[in-house]
Design brief:
- There is one protein chain.
- The chain contains 7 helices and 2 strands.
- It is mainly alpha-helical and 201 residues long.
- The longest helix is centred in the middle third of the chain and has 34 residues.
């Protein structure tokens, strides 16, 4: 099974036909897809300017989409390396029980669904790397009451998400499943109340 870097080389290789280059970019999303496979593909297509079903997109646009994905991946890999180092140090110092961020991180190791978007058409507009930087910053500071990606204040608790965890606070502005550790208990309770209000409306 090809890894991310070998797939990226195929996307860039002008000797490969366009169908293979496009396919290789799609396969990259099996290794790293911050919003989930379908939402990340929708994001990359819209940002790079080619259609979701375009079988022969402009090669330069394919490479632009790959570059955005690679930049985001490097941001996430740097975070994971720092996270692993911190956990090693904590274990060495006798802190064996992981915290809530660690529990969340275990579900997103490798970067799949870090900022899960259950609706593939609703996701943040900005560059993937910037979205991940904002999310990482939120994970490294005290919990807040808004979406860490877009500062949206409208968080609604949703169930039956196609992800693990399958329930949680979703930002109605940018569509991400907000990691619980970045929100205060009051913000989580407010998101749950918002769900009840929606159901009764």
């Amino acid at each position: 099974m090809a890894g991310f870097r070998s797939l990226a080389r195929q996307v860039r290789d002008p000797r490969c036909d366009l169908a293979l280059r496009r396919y290789s970019l799609r396969k990259c999303l099996e290794r790293f897809a911050p919003y989930g496979h379908r939402a990340t593909w929708d994001h990359l297509c819209s940002r790079a300017g080619f259609g979701l079903e375009d079988r022969s997109p402009d090669p330069a646009r394919l490479v632009a989409a790959l570059e955005e994905l690679e930049e985001a991946r490097s941001v996430w890999l740097a975070y994971e390396a720092g996270f692993a180092e911190r956990r090693r140090k904590e274990k060495h110092d006798g802190l064996r029980r992981p915290g809530s961020v660690d529990d969340w991180h275990r579900l997103t190791w490798g970067g799949f669904g870090v900022a899960w978007c259950d609706d593939p058409r609703v996701h943040p507009d900005g560059p993937l790397a910037e979205v991940l930087r904002r999310l990482i910053s939120a994970l490294e500071r005290e919990p807040g009451s808004v979406c860490p990606v877009c500062d949206g204040e409208h968080l609604v608790w949703k169930y039956d998400l196609d992800h693990e965890p399958s329930t949680g606070p979703v930002c109605t502005d940018c569509g991400i499943l907000v990691p619980r550790p970045v929100l205060t208990p009051d913000a989580l309770a407010e998101a749950r109340r918002g769900r009840r209000l929606l159901m009764s409306a």
